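Checklist before submission:
- one chain only
- standard amino acids only
- sequence pasted in full

Submission:
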Amino acid sequence: MFLPMFRIWHMLVCFLLFIFSLLPLNTAAFDTNRERVNQTDSLKMVIKGRHHEDSLIMDAHFRLGRIYRLTKPNRGLDHLKAGLDIAEKNQFSSVIGRTLADIGALYWRLSNFNRAYDFFIEAGHVFEKEGDLAGNALVMTSIGAIFSRQGYQEYALEYHLQALDLFQELDSVRLSSSVLNNIGMIYYEQRDFEMAEYYHQKSLEITKKYEDLSGKSYSYNNLGSIRKQTGKYEEAHSYFNKSLKIRQEIGRKLEIANTKINLGTLYFLKEDYDQAIDLLEHCIVLYEEMDNPAGVANVNHILGKVFAALGDFDKSRNYYELSLIIAEQLGLASLVSDNYKSLSELYVKYGDYHLAYDYQKKYLILQDSIYDAEASRRAVELRFVQEREQRENEIQLLRKSHQIIELNYDKQRLFRNFFLLFIFLILVTLVIIYFRFLEYKRTNALLKKQKEEIAVSNRMLKELNLSLFEHQEKVESLNKKLKESEKNLININKTKDKFFSIISHDLRNPFAAIISFSRILKRDIDTLSKEELHELVEDLDTSVIKISNLLDNLLQWSRTQTGKISFKPEKFSLKEVIIENFNLFATSAREKEIDLLDKTEGDVIVYGDINMTDTVLRNLISNALKYSHPGGKVVVSAMEKNGFIELSVSDTGVGVSKQDQLKLFRSDMLHSTYGTKDEKGSGLGLLLCREFISRQGGTLSIKSEVGKGSEFSFTLPRNVT
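Returned file contents:
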């Protein structure tokens, strides 16, 4: 009953301290704001001037872009783009790369990660052309952060390692600390704790050397998380305390709350439940002060686990349900899913197997929908983040205006307001006490009634116990089926995630190349020679062909998975299909000086789907050319075998190891390597071949030896009369 009163007095004291802390800053804040407004007006006058030089107007756009980047990022983006147009028009090459990177950073701030990626890639091309290693390191770090934010940890790690190499080449140790920290967090997500600790320790050494307090706090916190995951609780406790001490000195509430959550979770793992509850309840206060309902929902879920471990199932359920309500309101699907699962386990302990089954079913359905909605969610999330940032900027401006007005009130007005607030709080406290008294009386009446109901319930429970034994076996059987279903869904979703990850990456690179080539053509078309134009057109054509082939295979694969490709068997000449594909790849073979040889004898007639067979043969010949060395040969042959016609495509290329052969036909791995001329595939073609051959009643196999070549064979039924 006294806890709400304590919190009200605590809020009042904090509010008074906040108001009085602002009073000395009134004149300085007003002067700073007025100086910024005057500077902005001056720069706008430069841009509107008719007789100013382009370099002066460009510099004004860049300075306005930097001024607006935090308060009005969209306006800042417009100014940066206007400055970039002037720089490209006048060929001010020294500022083009940095401006492209600044635009990418603003798109990142607006959570438009695809546009940010495009501008960072183009900036990287400019930096590489100019030999700017520092600029390239900045681009690699930014792209790595984008991939990490989108969940592509493998690609994020690749870019962060490249950035780290560049920083080491530049001998810029201090700047490399944040990159080391990012790499450590990626390894932590992948549960490679040894590598994660290695990189966090290296980052900590640098931050200690240069007295970077914020960096030290992050390193200590991350090292504590690693120790917690590996069961070294005392060492984890030491690291968390070091991080908390620094963050309390800096005074950042969000970071303090995050570290206290880690400490609270650690006490929970050590079974020191009282300490865990105290810390976690304080975290809720911090998150409420910061108006961070997501943090409140997360801490409530952890408290639910703590009270479940204590055996206080009623409190545990209350915390889970409160966390669930907030998570559903905020659309936090992952936290909603965790609460479903925790409530299901809790109701099993209650003995309410019906509700346990319902929550387990909701958990499995939501898990499946989370993965299915991932692609569309990212697009919606981008728009949502933009709108939210715009609203936050507007709210921030209103708050600043309100603070300026409040600071101009005289002391008498402040005293009167605080006195009225004090009277109001007393009235609220009296009302709370009165309603608590009424609740106390009502509770006593309910307790008497419940005692009588408990006596009746005990008799009924004895009867129900007999029936529960009979249902227990059925429930155990259902639990086994649910676990098997959950395992299958997890495996299917992992396969689907891997599939979409590789497809999106392979589509992105050709598209990024096309965007880069088109910008180069737009910018330098008047200065490029015919040979350079010819090279650009050939590269552009190669990227378009890559995209076309990938989309064709992707379309065919998706149609097979949805059952939209119908199987239409007929008699047809295998010779004609081979000749058509040889004609199709004649140019590619000549470019690599590879001989295409047809060793089929006579006109072989088979019974199958001609379109599926043509797709299989086209993919196998394309792979053979891709992995053959210049001067090699690709041979197509056919022979009768056990009532089937076996068609083989062999090459003299790089070959496939025994280990990689096991990955070729697995949809959950999508194995792919570069060709002899760095040709890149998606690994989807062989899966498509296997699907089409299986539909026709045949089989697909491989014989290969590293360094000597490969032979892919598939069977088709003979001529059916």
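Reviewer check: The domain at 173-267 is CATH 1.25.40.10 (Serine Threonine Protein Phosphatase 5, Tetratricopeptide repeat).
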